[in-house]
Amino acid sequence: MSVSTALESPKKVDYKKDFKWLYLPKEKPELVEVPELLYLTIEGSGSPDAPEFSEAVEALYALSYAVKMSYKSAVVPDGYYEYTVFPLEGVWDLIDYTAVTLEKENFKYTLMIRQPDFLTPALFERFLTEAGKKKPGLPLSRVKLTTLTEGSCCQMLHLGSYADEPASFAAMEAYCAEHGWIRASKTHREIYLSDPRKTETAKLKTVLRFQVASK
Fold it and tell me: What is the pLDDT of residues 148-192, one digit of tens each?
């Protein structure tokens, strides 16, 4: 199913059904072409255990649910349709590539949540103002409305601890080498299908993805 077909449908859009190929891959590597998508994004650096990280996540969700619940507002957005809020995603990088050890304080990230295509820049500013009144302590001023196109990628579902992700990345890189692809950059994307506060570590589900290029 194409992105446009799913979003034009009168039924409720559910990413677990309409975009299963992007958000619910199997526990083995596969190649996928990721189209242009709309996100709310916020950049940061440092440990994901730090308060700043949690505040950034909360800011994204505050805005995302303001958009989701806008059908109850006095002025419903043009083109509004029912949908399930998309999961949190993060693109991860390092501040210093020369660092000997992988310290969490050396992490650089862009957190994001995909948005419905009816969210325009004008509506974004409206929801930014509304969310700011309800959640004045959050870093909402750092949130941006951004369109991203990943293109050709390798992805797989990682089950278990985040600390065990290197094994999954190794499997993905081996798969790419076997099929004539190479990893295009050192950054990678994680899509969080589980809430680590409520899920046993062994049952955590995370989509791992990185961009690829032909050899």
Answer: 999 999 999 999 999 999 999 999 999 999 999 999 999 999 999
Residue 5 placed within a domain:
no
d(C-alpha 207, C-alpha 168), whole Å:
10
| H helix intervals, the chain | 3-8, 15-18, 20-23, 51-68, 121-134, 165-178
Distance CA 116, CA 124 (A): 12
How far apart CA 181 and CA 110 sit, in angstroms, is 25
Rounded to 5 degrees, φ, ψ at 102 are -90, 85
3 inside domain: no
Question: What torsion, rounded to 10 degrees, do the Cα atoms 42, 46, 47, 51 define?
Answer: -60
For the entire predicted model, the pTM comes to 0.92
Which of 39, 8, 2 is CA-nearest to residue 22?
Answer: 2
In terms of Cβ atoms closer than 10 Å to its own Cβ (0-12, 13-18, 19+), residue 7 is middle
Residue 6 CB neighbour total at 10 angstroms: 16
With respect to residue 12, please indicate whether it lies within any of the assigned structural domains.
no
Token code pair at residue 56: 């950034």
Domain residues for the domain of 159 are 20-214
